[in-house]
Design brief:
- By secondary structure, this protein is mainly α.
- It has five helices and two strands; from the N terminus they run H-H-H-H-E-H-E.
- It has a two-stranded parallel ribbon with strand order 1-2.
- Helix 1 packs across helix 4.
- The termini are far apart.
Length: 176
Amino acid sequence: MFKIRNLILLILDIIFVNLSYILGLWLRFDGAIPEIYLKIYGKYALYITAIHIVVFYLCKLYRTMWRYASIGEFISVIGASFLANVLSAIFLMAIQSHLPRSIYAIALIFSSVLIVGTRFLSKASTQMIFHKGGHKNYKRILIIGGGEAGVMVAKELRKHPEIASVPVAFIDDDPE
């Protein structure tokens, strides 16, 4: 299952990286992309995609269990996307591709949004099921201890719907 998810993420990354550049060109030229720029992009699309996939792999974006992702993983995805787009821009400028420079910034925004979106879709779908009443038959749990350990227990219960328990309250003897 883990390898299938990574393969799906890889395929989505390939699609979204290329889509971000096409959308960037489309936005830059108000929907009427000159054919010359499509040809230029098509000529270098494989290189741009390879740069992104290698950076994502080196940044370990294919190792994380995204269902349990937190702000640290979010920052990693943004950083990897930024690095991949900067390296792609450097490559395209170094070979004098003649693509408009505004494309690099637009593609960075689109690819970051799309790639972060795919990574956190699994997490969001799990939490939406949990919060939309998918836990009606769950056992209601009272957590004793409102400190870090209690919060950690509550998070673990939310992350693992197979436990079929939902935290409803905390009890703590610490007045703070």
